[in-house]
């Protein structure tokens, strides 16, 4: 069981910054995220797009902002449960919570801060009739453990970075990799497209375009797919494969959190007030794009503010008898759990002879 | 003074709404749909309007002249589902006086 002071659900910018603010108060954080890497939408949807409204950054790439936040919170040694979705919650007699993920990982925490943005990212599933029958039986929407595909035949569908990157990676792992895309053009990074072309020329990746997967067959497990070339049913053909990995991006859904008894309004979690962003369940806060209150603006900088106030309130909840006075980092410095300390240089008083 | 344009938008429940959209607020079609709350929050404009998701896909039902499709929009629609010949991404259609009388239907939620 993982134990922490604040369990943050969502590793987007708001969730990451909450680790820093909690760290200043000597509170430990652990983060759960459905994606296999931190950064939320910034890392998943638009890592190379610039953001212009982060104070102090005239322009910053979304991916760079995530990297900087990760660097900023490093001294506070947050724990991560990545690639898993917070699923069940049990309130304990002492007011703490146990949160279990869809993979069964248990977390014990005093406070929960939901920073889930638009929700947990779930794979966009292609509209193939019987696809649900083959999920985890040959159809995978994410590559969590590449070793699973060692010496297996794999078909990947999609035209973005994930489809290209995993085709390249699995070319050295799987016995065969076939990449299927509806167009001849790919929208992933140029160097990835070039690398796929090289691997195709070397015979390590088979490319089928323009085409799409329209059918899946197999008894207990997937054994073949039906590929439609040129959007023409007359050109349909079957292809044997062990795995089919459709990588068409992700779309956010509030997911199991919606069943936790929290007040939901317009697909967001209603918070009782803007003093600390606590929900209708004491001890559970909602910060960032996932919450709603009068005047709400879904901006990263608003999420940072909400994370800060949430941490102050969480501290008082954990330590009701202690009084805490907010300190500026310029005055108090930053002391990490890893023993690191950052502080402003002391003023030099020159002696006068 | 800039004119409003009248648009006909059929939502995902099949209800048609006639709405006025301002041409002087740098809005796009997806933002108009959001501002009139014609699709639940969190189901449209997820990427914020960067042609990085297809949550604002719509079918163009009138012969209104629209801006050309850019490479980002074309690439995103190539990965979207429920795509038809008349599919466009609402976020890539700025509201201008040329859109007067535009009729669209929202594509199903993926």
Compute the number of strand runs of chain A.
23
Query: How would you classify the helix and strand content of chain B by structural class?
Result: alpha+beta
Compute the number of helices of chain B.
Answer: 2
The fraction of residues in strands of chain A falls at 25-35%
Q: Spatial order of the strands in the main sheet of chain B?
A: 2-1-5-3-4
Derived structural class of chain A: alpha/beta
Instruction: Note poorly predicted spans of chain B.
Output: none
Notable traits:
heterodimer; A: 7-stranded mixed sheet; 23 strands; B: 110 residues; alpha+beta; 5-stranded mixed sheet
Question: Can you walk me through this structure?
Answer:
The complex is a heterodimer of chains A (about 350) and B (about 110). Helices cover about 20% and strands about 30% of the residues of chain A. Chain A is an alpha/beta fold and about 350 residues long. In chain A, strands 1, 2, 5, 6, 7, 8 and 20 form a seven-stranded mixed beta sheet that branches. A four-stranded parallel beta sheet of chain A has the order 12-11-10-16, with helices on one face. Chain A has a three-stranded antiparallel beta sheet with strand order 13-14-15, with no helix packed on it. In chain A, strand 11 (about 175-180), helix 5 and strand 12 form a beta-alpha-beta unit. In chain A, helix 1 runs parallel beside helix 3 (about 60-75), helix 1 runs parallel beside helix 6 (about 300-320) and helix 4 runs parallel beside helix 5. A five-stranded mixed beta sheet of chain B has the order 2-1-5-3-4, with helices on one face. Chain B is about 15% helix and about 25% strand. Chain B has helices spanning about 30-35, 70-75, and strands at about 5-10, 15-20, 55-60, 85-90, 105. Chain B is an alpha+beta fold. At the A-B interface, loops of A face helix 2 of B.
